[in-house]
Amino acid sequence: MTGRAIDMAIVGGGLAGGLAALAVHRAHPALEIALFESGDVYGGNHRWSWFDSDLAPAGEDLLAAFPQTRWDVGYDVRFPGLERTLASTYRSLASRDFDATLRRLLPQAALRLNSPVAEVAADSVQLATGEKVRAQIVVDCRDALPTPHLRGGWQLFLGRHLRLSSPHGITRPIVMDAQVEQHDAYRFVYTLPLGTDELFVEDTYYADSPVLDRESLSRRIDRYCAANGWSGETVGEETGVLPVITGGDFAAQRQSLATPGVVAIGARGGFTHPLTSYTVPFAVDNALTLARHAASPAQKLSARFERRAHDHWRDTAFYRHLGRMLFLGGEPEERYRIFAHFYRLPEPLVERFYAGRSTLPDKGRILIGKPPIPIPAAIRALLGKGAPLVHEGRP
Ligand SMILES: Cc1cc2nc3c(=O)[nH]c(=O)nc-3n(C[C@H](O)[C@H](O)[C@H](O)COP(=O)(O)OP(=O)(O)OC[C@H]3O[C@@H](n4cnc5c(N)ncnc54)[C@H](O)[C@@H]3O)c2cc1C
Fold this sequence. Notes:
FAD/NAD(P)-binding domain, 8-stranded mixed β-sheet, 7-stranded mixed β-sheet, 30% strand, globular, binds flavin-adenine dinucleotide
């Protein structure tokens, strides 16, 4: 056990933990912090994207520390019978840039890579090596786990970073191209033009099962690229199996994961968008809140974030209802209609939806009008429960 306690131990150097460490260090450079990550890089192998409209100026400022790709020319969506360009600025950050920036901006002593933590407590963390580090505040940002307490479906994807043999001519992101075959799920392809001859192409599914069939997704990306005349070398791939939460017992979920006096943020703390599974806006907001209250006693800080998590659960109920309509309200190959209906609505409503800030009138407009699924099916879906968010094998 080290004698003197450090000020803050952050466990899990993914998106939430890395942003928290940076926000706290920027606001309080004199605090002694440590960012414990079990892997040998911060952020794993991800590409995180977000809309400018997801963030307040302080959040934009925090993310501005990281090199990122930015598209000021809007983005496209495509559905059977609908093609639309929306104006929002879109941004994307690769985890290798996240990692390099944290290594550059955090104090050397804060960087604790290859440091799996075996146990967290309100006043210390115990590493797998047996080393115990005392800390005034402990923040748990380990990754989310499958759970029997929450219910829903899954968002599965395989993303491929390609360097093409010739320019692709794509000028803006295609955030959803659902004009593709709908194989038993809501399926779309997501394309980011990262450079004149560089593309990130991702095949995504909203499916009932969490089993990611990498071979099939890979072949579908091959076919999508071939159909668009894109060929070249693969320079990276990433996969995701993310829970789409449609209901459950959040209090039981928190109880199963919470350690008294430990601050819980990140996806594991419940800070996700239930329907898109995105976390960027919430991770940024939590990082800034943690920095603002870094001088609070641990118990008080942990209780503050526990309340935030429950408020977040309450405030995102609408997205869970929509998720139930997506998974339970129609045949899998008809699920695209829910998103197609949504994308006909005014852009400010779309922006608030992604940021998790839909207003009451927004919710009415999303649900009212020509229903994308039959009304009896919608009612059945709203009353339905969905399946537990558990699975044995993770990719
Ligand atoms: C491939 C992919 C792409 C995504 N794209 C987007 C996107 O574009 N936009 C968006 O908003 N969301 C996206 N998401 C969803 C979500 O934002 C991410 O999953 C995000 O990384 C969640 O952040 P987190 O910090 O909660 O968890 P993670 O980023 O998973 O971080 C948890 C970290 O804790 C570490 N850890 C676990 N156990 C221990 C331990 N015992 N000791 C030490 N360290 C430990 C892990 O190694 C990991 O680095 C994506 C998810 C995936 C998988």
